[in-house]
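Backbone-to-sequence.
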């Protein structure tokens, strides 16, 4: 597990002019942030764009001296990425095309997009909360859980990627779920919509 002081020190070093500190921060959180973005947009090129836009915003905020997340760097960066993902979907929303016809019904167009958008935001918030909970797991369990849930890898692929037996990968997944449940119960977290 990472030491809590690492990110704040790197952020402070970057603000003080150490460009290398930002590179370390980006490399440190690259995998987690990229996986998060990709899980939403399912497109490598868009993931790259949003990843870069996220760090452009991070840099601008840090340079302005407007960062005050009190050591919660990763959740802050994830929130920026999440907002950029929402912006991306808003920008690229395709309006439905209609053929002229006398039985045109405005209600068939309206549907309940607002409800769907609200459900999606709630779902995103739950996924974001879950992501933060997953961070609390031991590294070996977290790795298996992410490979299985977010990358849709089989236990055989996980076994090959991590260099452990399939049974060990299965065991780690089982313990990850048990530990997640304990964290959720301990903190009285509700993960429903």
């Amino acid at each position: 597990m990472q030491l809590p002081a690492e990110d704040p020190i790197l952020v402070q070093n970057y603000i003080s002019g150490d460009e290398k500190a930002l590179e370390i921060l980006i490399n440190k959180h690259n995998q987690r942030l990229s996986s998060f973005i990709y899980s939403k947009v399912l497109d490598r090129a868009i993931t790259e764009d949003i990843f870069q836009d996220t760090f452009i915003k991070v840099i601008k905020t840090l340079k302005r001296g407007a960062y005050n997340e009190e050591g919660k760097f990763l959740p802050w960066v994830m929130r920026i990425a999440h907002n950029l993902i929402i912006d991306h979907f808003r920008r690229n929303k395709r309006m439905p095309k209609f053929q002229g016809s006398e039985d045109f019904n405005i209600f068939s167009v309206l549907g309940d997009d607002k409800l769907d958008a609200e459900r999606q935001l709630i779902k995103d918030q739950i996924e974001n909360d879950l992501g933060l909970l997953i961070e609390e797991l031991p590294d070996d369990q977290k790795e298996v859980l992410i490979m299985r849930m977010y990358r849709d890898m089989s236990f055989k692929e996980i076994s090959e990627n991590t260099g452990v037996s399939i049974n060990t990968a299965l065991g780690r997944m089982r313990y990850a779920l048990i530990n997640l449940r304990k964290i959720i119960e301990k903190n009285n977290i509700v993960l429903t919509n």
